[in-house]
Request: fold
Amino acid sequence: MSTLYSVIVAGQSFYFWSIMAMGACVGSFMNVCILRIPEQSFFSHLRSVCPSCGKQIPAWLNIPIFGFFMLRGRAQCCSAKLSWQYPLIEIAGALIFAGMYLKFPFLGWSISGSEFEINQFTNKQQRSDEFLIHFHFIFKKIPKNLIQFNLI
Reply:
């Protein structure tokens, strides 16, 4: 029950939602890597372009998760259907960041009761190493394997 309470308290936190927004942005970058690396076109377009017609996508439509739903799953320029891969990977990135925030409290802060208090880790170096190992696995290995095994 205390874990559920911690999640509810975290959900009311500005830090929690900021971490989720960062996760969605990292998920969006993971989409770029997953789609452009196999095509060897990583630097051919500095800005995002429509996968169907190649027209540049305006920045205000490139907001992770929300852009897809604002467009109702269709490209603005040519009305081509967009893949559900885009919001799913972005949502996964947001949820992974949220989970990592709860497991490895951001910048030494943790949830205690109804307020945030400084968490005193006995070995902060070990916790930061653990965080980096998880971060490396999630945001390097997962896109690599999705590309390698053509899972998306």
Q: What stands out?
A: The first strand starts at residue 109 and ends at 112. DSSP finds five helices and two strands in the chain. Residues 40 and 58 are 23 Å apart (CA to CA).
